Amino acid sequence: MQLLQLFQRVPRFLRSFYFLAGVGFLVWMLVFDSNDLVKQYDMYAKWRELQGEKEYYLNNIELVKKDRAELLSSPELLEKFAREKYIMKRPGEDVFILVPHPAE
Fold this sequence. Notes:
It contains 4 helices and no strands. It has helices at about 1-10, 15-30, 35-75, 75-85. The model has no long low-confidence stretch (mean pLDDT about 85).
């Protein structure tokens, strides 16, 4: 009897099948589903990280394009770049690489 009175005190819309089904659905989607809130947040954080990387690489591409155009315009710059970056040499030359000693 007391349980029935307690049940009667709950507002009618909270006892509705549709409300209970909706609450059950929300709990399922927010907690138990394979795309729950935690996973959605992790995916959003990863997406933001990837967007930052995309910006970095797009900026890097622009710098490389500029350097490439500059290098292809002058054979002297191309030779300088090859010697400094890839340690290339002419036949008969000796190349000495100086490596700074790390400070202790």
